[in-house]
């Protein structure tokens, strides 16, 4: 347990996020912390809940289903985001479990989500995933295809799309990728920008992240 003069990893990170935001002329509450709990058992998640963390991310629907329904029953409020690729055969479970899906990346998936929302009478929030490094092995919409993709989405389905998300290439300076994301967000008028992980979240904040997704920084 926490003693009064040692900060928990969560509080240290929250302080660091606020300091970094201020350093780059942003408002401290402009940047939210998404705690990434993939591969973490429930007994490592509960201490974060008890410290007031309510925004969480999982990358696999199947794993999330084993942990979160029980947590949702036991504690009042969570905002649970899917941050990993969503297969169309998991749409039903994903709509039932998550509050937001950050990995919307195809029109086909959007149609399935739209139909499933109507079936379940539930509205989620969506971020479009951008394959900002144009990496063949990664999912996401290519930056050059984004404008057309977004236009098609708006004309074909009614989903509450509010932001963008990316995972920049590993082992490269992420700054130019974050900058390009911020430009796409500005052009499209989407308010939320989910970018930055344990190794690069400060840079992401510098370039306009409104949500950083941290796993290792909180749990190791
Ligand atoms: C695992 C994961 C994170 C967290 O990464 P860390 O390096 O552990 O902070 C963030 N975003 C996505 C999409 C992830 O899969």
Top keywords for this entry?
single chain, 220 residues, alpha/beta, TIM Barrel, 8-stranded parallel β-sheet, 9 helices, 17% strand, binds pyridoxal-5'-phosphate
Give a quick summary of the entry.
This protein is of the alpha/beta class and 220 residues long. It is built from nine helices and eight strands.
Strands, total number:
8
**Class derived from helix and strand content:** alpha/beta
User: Class, according to the CATH hierarchy?
Assistant: Alpha Beta
| Cross-sheet strand order for the largest sheet | 7-6-5-4-3-2-1-8
- Named CATH architecture: Alpha-Beta Barrel
- Return residue spans where pLDDT drops below 50 for at least 5 consecutive residues: none
Task: Please indicate the percent range of residues in DSSP E strands (runs of 2 or more).
Answer: 15-25%
Mean pLDDT: 95
Helix content: 40-55%
Rg for CA atoms = 17 Å
Which oligomeric form is depicted? single chain
Number of domains: 1
Summarize the main sheet: 8 strands, parallel
Distance between the ends: 16 Å
Task: Tell me which ligands are bound.
Answer: pyridoxal-5'-phosphate
CATH superfamily, please?
Answer: Alanine racemase
Order of helices and strands: HEHEHEHEHEHEHEHEH
Structure description:
This protein is α/β, with parallel strands linked by helices and 220 residues long. The protein is 43% helix and 17% strand. The protein is built from nine helices and eight strands. It has an eight-stranded parallel sheet. α4 (91-97) packs across α5 (107-120). It is globular and about 55 Å long. The structure holds pyridoxal-5'-phosphate. Residues 36, 38, 59, 83-84, 167, 197-198, 213-217 line the site of pyridoxal-5'-phosphate (PLP). Pyridoxal-5'-phosphate (PLP) is lined by residues 36, 38, 59, 83-84, 167, 197-198, 213-217.
